[in-house]
Specification:
heterodimer; A: mainly alpha; three-stranded mixed beta sheet; 23 helices; 7 strands; B: two-stranded antiparallel sheet; two-stranded parallel ribbon; 22 helices
């Protein structure tokens, strides 16, 4: 095991990079500094990969510092940690984040107005997202989660298209509502739950060497259940592990499994589950909370839409897997069928909307909704196939949606137009661009040999084999495969095949330049690599999936 | 790894490597690219011959770890067995012949490199499909060969009809693939395994009919069987060599191959359903082939019809045998059709029908002979292998009639076969005579044989449909140096069948004779159900977006904006109410009070005294009142 605080490095490098960038006298160097910081970050991520042990139990590379510790008087004490940790899920998503940010900055050459602030905001957002993926303390996660909104708001609002004000406000308000739901549950849980380790420490249960074994844990939980712990020695925290165990809940609290409290026929824990679920669902987004996404994507500039689609959406699904489901395992299993129904709706509804689109960027945005539906479907299965498929689909969608938005960006840079009917026969004048488009389109519609197939296939397989709900939901969902093929093929044939035609008289077909080609083809290659050798991804997440499912069930 | 496994791996990898190499081949050296591709195809053929000669009847497993998941592992597992060997042999021979043909046929095509790269990719996918032992891999390659078909149909990307046809083919196949996917998942669930060779009927019973039906539906689209047959005739928009390989010999038979793989596991009812779909396709395809004026479309309908015949075999040995035979004569017919169309300079803008070709052109006797040889194969005449394969089919049904509870169904299949033979005799004779022996008032244009790269592969494939490969006796299968493993499972039908078969030929001949100069009306434009469905869906999508999505978005928007309105109302309230009434009011109150009260503090001692006395008397009065009761 390596001794350096690698997670903090990953988190701090973009922050420091952003600061340096702001202080640097010349604006020309901004992009290069941005690339340098994300490149460094990728280096650290590679080190994480090298030293990560996929078979080990629990979190690795853990770091912990006390951040706040205060007394609540009669309610006990509160402690908040700056606690970081890494498991397979975080590792894979952090790697995706690093890669996507590098590419997004790589492809931001068209930004000419206030570059310094643009790149600084990008790096700031990168740091916040990394913080989200590494946080082991719910409050720390929440702070990062909220903090990410601001850079995004400015990035859309300042460098976006014509409707940027509307889109950025819409994005901000939607996401804030989601955060509000999360905040409510977080506070409820923070007050109801105790941190057994810290409480044990306050009770003097810690042995000489400061270790806290299972026995002590049971002792604390037993004492809590019997109400033997004096009020002022109770220590609350937002530690994820403490919150994941219902035995840490105080008996008189609403959230206690035996509290019997109900509102509208729904128990307090189910309320907690659904509030958290929908809080994160807005981020994913799940129909019907998705209407911020097409607007935000269309108005954002290329690099920002890439980040938005490839990374930000993943935070919602990450929130489900990390918080929502482990916090309320019984409620989650009981909610499997509604989740599968929502997923099917997402898949079909998103695909139908994509089919109706004339604007390429909107089409890609709606296809994102459809593809993220498969993530929810996989999660709702609560088995290894489904969860592995869901994680795979997250990464695969990250890579493919990035590629698709870059493709749109290539067109928009040249013609300031994204309307599908305005292009035809692009394969004659732009063969490399068409090749990249063909690869990304077919990968997105789930052709075997590309990553999209593996993700969708295993999500569906998991849903079929789950047994928590009847077969009709995955059957309905599988029609998304057909619709996906429908809109992608229609677009592909309309734009890239047929007689060469461009809407504007003075438009010329210029094929990809080296920079664009490098970014696009590296994404396509990754997609093919993952599609042919899916174990390159599965091996990292297998431990996580096994443990969390064993815990939930 | 044994040497056999090594050869198998070569067979699997070689086409993909070639495809990759060809994809990056510089455009300038396209001649070498063609030679390279042919060499790669011949290598596959050689490897197959060696494997077939040494291990024709053996099974060779080959397995690699692929995915580990939740304690179970999904491996890349391949299996060579006698059925796979037969399919692969057909693939290897036809692809090698077609590549030689295409290298000349497409010499002026600017995208010839792309053609060969796709071609190798398709061969790789088809090889993978044939050798797959794992269910998921099978499904993956199944989709990939569909992609290959799509890319070839839409090969000439500037032809609008080709694009429509390509999309149609892909989407119809994708629709059925959903059924296949669900069927395969359920199949794995039923047998508790994801390997074809581990499925044993003993422990779990045969495949339940629901799963069986799903699988049959999934396979039906790939084989262009009723009710999914609409895509195949349109698929003829692609280059002829690709049609010969993909839409005649190999990919369309993938559905039959799935039936063959699962033959022993299916319930009889499901098998009969397969047979029924095949029977409908046989008759419908034959009937449509009669009416076609376009040579390639006619061949496509004939393919649907012949595939129906394989389906009627329900995946038995005769099915596989007919698949093998059909691959040769049908790809030969397609290659021949390609040559005829090239000679007559028929193209998309100026299509020339069968009758017109015959009236204006004469062709060299060798070409006529080969076309005739393949046509005889299509009819299943004696001296062709198809004669035996149809015998084998009839024999299976005769035997089943004795044992099965569904004797009537087998009788119906026999009847359908008889009708099918009448139809195939009729349409084949009709196209052959119209093509080569039409009388004409005008002098005909004479054509030479053309390049050897074109007519030699055609001749070889046509010869492949002859009986000589299977023995000297033209009426019975014999043992020769070349015999397929499946010959052991074929049976001979009772002599009665000979009579029926002969009668069917005669009827077909008569039918042709009496209708040999039909008045052919202009082909009606068919309203394509498929186009209607696609149109309906895109319309529905637009409606959904306009009605639901926009409404929902707008109502959320209104909700958001109403908050702003509310905020303004609150601001006004604040201004008038709190600021105006409360704050302003209290201000006024304080002002008024202080004004009034300040008059009390006027500094005059006399007034203070009066006040003091008043207060004192009031309190004395109050206390007196308290004491009273």
């Amino acid at each position: 095991m390596i001794e350096m605080p690698l997670l903090s490095y990953t988190f701090l490098i973009p922050l420091l990079g952003g600061l340096l960038l702001l202080l640097w006298p010349s604006a020309q160097a901004a992009r290069r500094l941005g690339l340098l910081s994300t490149g460094l970050q990728i280096g650290v991520l590679l080190m994480l990969f090298m030293h990560f042990n996929p078979e080990a139990k629990g979190l690795q590379f853990t770091e912990q510092k006390e951040w706040m510790h205060f007394s609540l008087g009669n309610l006990g004490q509160f402690v908040v940690h700056y606690a970081l940790g890494l498991d397979g899920l975080s590792l894979v998503l952090a790697a995706l984040t690093g890669l996507i940010f590098f590419l997004a900055i790589w492809h931001s050459g068209h930004i000419v107005r206030s570059e310094k602030s643009y790149y600084a905001l990008m790096l700031l957002m990168n740091a916040a997202i990394m913080g989200c993926f590494f946080a082991r303390d719910l409050l720390l996660f929440y702070v990062c989660f909220e903090f990410m909104l601001l850079p995004m708001y400015f990035l859309i609002g300042l460098w976006g298209g014509a409707g940027r004000n509307y889109a950025s406000i819409k994005f901000l308000i939607y996401t804030l509502i989601g955060s509000l739901l999360i905040l409510v549950v977080m506070l409820m849980m923070g007050i109801s739950y105790i941190d057994p380790y810290e409480t044990g420490k306050a009770m003097g249960l810690l042995t000489g060497d400061g270790s806290f074994g299972l026995e002590s844990l049971h002792l604390v939980q037993q004492a809590l259940a019997n109400g033997q712990i004096p009020k002022n020695t109770l220590v609350h925290s937002f530690d994820i592990q403490a919150l994941s165990d219902a035995k840490n809940c105080q008996t008189q609290q609403l959230l206690h499994p035996q509290s019997g409290w109900e509102l509208g026929g729904i128990s307090a824990r189910a309320w907690g589950f659904w509030l958290l679920f929908f809080g994160f669902a807005i981020k994913v987004p799940v129909v019907p909370f998705h209407t911020w996404l097409p607007d935000a994507h269309v108005e954002a500039s290329t690099g920002v839409s890439v980040v938005l689609a490839a990374v930000l959406l993943k935070l919602g699904a990450y929130g489900w897997m990390r918080f929502c489901l482990p916090f309320f395992p019984q409620e989650a299993i009981a909610a499997a069928e509604p989740m599968a129904i929502l997923a099917s709706i997402c898949i079909i509804y998103g695909a139908y909307n994509a089919l109706a689109m004339q604007d390429l960027k909107k089409l890609v945005a709606y296809s994102s909704i459809s593809h993220m539906g498969f993530v929810l479907l996989g999660i709702s299965a609560f088995n290894a196939q489904g969860w592995q498929g869901a994680i795979f689909q997250m990464v695969s969608h990250g890579i493919l949606s990035a590629a698709l938005f870059l493709l749109v960006g290539v067109l928009y840079d040249r013609y300031q137009d994204r309307s599908i009917p305005h292009f035809s026969g692009l394969n004659q004048g732009m063969p490399w661009f068409s090749l990249a488009a063909g690869l990304s389109f077919f990968a997105s519609l789930g052709m075997p040999g590309f990553s999209g197939f593996i993700g969708e296939f295993f999500s569906l397989l998991g849903a079929f084999q789950s047994g928590l709900y009847p077969m009709q939901w995955p059957i309905i969902a599988s029609f998304g495969l057909l619709l996906g093929a429908g809109y992608f093929l229609w677009t592909f044939q309309k734009m890239f095949w047929g007689k060469p035609y461009l809407f504007g008289a003075d438009w010329k077909m210029n094929d990809l330049n080296t920079q664009e080609a490098l970014g696009l083809f590296s994404l396509c290659l990754i997609s093919i690599l993952l599609g042919i050798l899916p174990n390159t991804l599965f091996q990292w997440t297998e431990g996580f999936v096994g443990q969390i499912l064993a815990y939930i069930k | 790894m044994t040497s056999a496994q090594g050869l198998l791996l070569t067979l699997l990898i070689c086409p993909w490597v070639s495809a990759l190499v060809l994809a990056f081949w510089p455009q300038k050296f396209s001649l070498f690219a063609r030679i390279f591709s042919i060499a790669s195809g011949c290598l596959c053929l050689l490897v197959w011959s060696r494997l077939f000669a040494e291990h024709g009847n053996d099974t060779i497993p080959l397995s690699y770890d692929w995915i580990g998941m939740g304690g179970q592992s999904i491996s890349l597992s391949w299996l060579w067995n006698s059925q796979a060997a037969t399919m692969l042999g057909l693939l290897a021979m036809v692809q090698a012949a077609v590549q030689v043909y295409a290298s000349h046929y497409l010499r002026q095509e600017p995208h010839v490199l792309r053609f060969f790269a796709f071609f190798q990719g398709f061969v790789g996918a088809m090889t993978g499909l044939i050798l797959s032992n794992g269910l998921w891999m099978f499904y993956g390659f199944w989709e990939l060969v569909g992609l290959g078909s799509y890319l070839f149909i839409g090969f000439w990307t500037e032809k609008p009809k080709a694009l429509l046809a390509a999309r149609k083919a892909f989407l119809i196949n994708r629709l059925a693939d959903i059924a296949l996917l669900i069927g395969l998942i359920a199949l794995a669930q039923h047998f508790q395994t994801t390997q074809f060779d581990a499925m044993k009927i003993g422990l779990h019973g045969p495949i339940p009919w629901g799963i069986g039906c799903l699988l049959v539906i999934g396979a039906a689209a790939k084989s262009a069987q009723f009710p999914f047959s609409a895509w195949l005739p349109d698929a003829m928009e692609g280059p002829s060599p690709a049609s010969a390989l993909i839409h005649a010999a190999t990919m369309v038979t993938a559905g039959v191959y799935l039936g063959i793989k699962l033959h022993a596991l299916q319930m009889e009812e499901v098998r009969l359903m397969m047979g029924a779909l095949g029977g409908i396709s046989l008759l419908w395809g034959g009937y449509q082939a009669l009416k076609q004026e376009d040579l390639k479309r006619m061949l496509a309908y004939s393919t649907i019809s012949q595939l129906g015949l394989m389906w009627m075999g329900m995946g038995g040995a005769a099915s596989l045998y007919h698949l093998w035979v059909h691959g040769f004569f049908k790809s030969a017919l397609f290659l021949s059709a390609g040559m005829l169309l090239h000679h007559t300079q028929s193209d998309a803008k100026n299509p020339i029908g069968i009758t017109e070709i015959g009236k204006k052109h004469t062709f060299p006797p060798l070409l006529v002979a080969w076309h005739g040889m393949a046509s005889l194969g299509l009819i299943g005449f004696p001296f062709s292998q198809a004669f035996y394969s149809k015998e084998g089919l009839a024999a299976e049904w005769f035997m089943a009639m004795d044992h099965s509870a569904y004797a009537w169904a087998y009788l119906a299949l026999l009847t359908a076969l008889g009708l099918g033979i009448i139809l195939s005799t009729w349409y084949t004779l009709s196209q052959f005579m119209r093509l080569f022996f039409s009388a004409s008032d005008h002098p005909k244009q004479r054509h030479s044989l053309g390049a050897a790269q074109e007519y030699l592969p055609l001749g070889l494939l046509a010869m492949g449909s002859l009986w000589i490969w299977t023995g000297i006796d033209p009426f019975h299968l014999g043992k020769t140096w070349f015999s397929l493993p499946l010959f052991a499972e074929l049976n001979s039908p009772p002599l009665l069948w000979m009579g029926i078969n002969g009668l069917a030929w005669c009827l077909g001949l008569l039918a042709w004779w009496f209708r040999r100069n039909p008045s052919r009306s202009e082909q009606k434009v068919q309203i394509s159900l498929w186009e209607a469905a696609f149109h309906w869906h895109s319309q529905a999508a637009r409606n959904l977006h306009q009605r639901i999505e926009k409404t929902w978005d707008r109502s959320l928007d209104v909700l958001g904006k109403s908050q702003v309105v509310l905020a303004h109302i609150f601001a006004k309230l604040d201004q008038w109410g709190i600021d105006g009434l409360l704050v302003g009011g209290s201000q006024a109150l304080a002002k008024g009070l202080s004004k009034n009260l300040s008059t009390w503090q006027n500094g005059r001692v006399k007034h203070y005294w009066w006040g003091l006395i008043l207060c004192l008397s009031l309190s004395i009065f109050y206390y007196l009142m308290r004491i009273q009761p």
